[in-house]
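User: I'm curious whether this sequence folds into something compact or stays loose and floppy. Could you predict its structure so I can see for myself?
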Amino acid sequence: MTNDQLERLESLKAGTIAAVTLALAFVVTTFVNNFLLTPSVFSFSSLFAGAIAVVCGFLFGVTYRYIIREDSNIQLKTGAVMAFGCVRGLTQIEMALQSSQTVLPAIATAGESIVWFALAAIALSLSIRLGWVKAFSSN
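Assistant: Here's the prediction. I'll summarize afterward.
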């Protein structure tokens, strides 16, 4: 394998770990929101939202690996989490404002988004520390 192929494989692993982490976080928060706080029926839109969360997680994982590289700079790590979490969360708030819905649930969901990406960052940092994923080296 060439170096480029090895780097792509590591990025694929990072993306997969983050996608699985976001999928698990989505399942937990959806269960809490839909079945404990406001009982409702699981719908196709929930399944679609889960698929979107998985794709966002994968993209975060790939990007996060390149952002942090071999650096231990906490500002890079938290900046990546906040960037992805805020983009997802603020979009939800904007949609609630445009549709004249109550904004408070959208704000809670925005907070959830930040937590999801923070969990993915923790999972990726742990995976890198354990050697499951190699950090991107900035040669």
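Summary: The chain has a mean pLDDT of 88. The chain has four helices and no strands.
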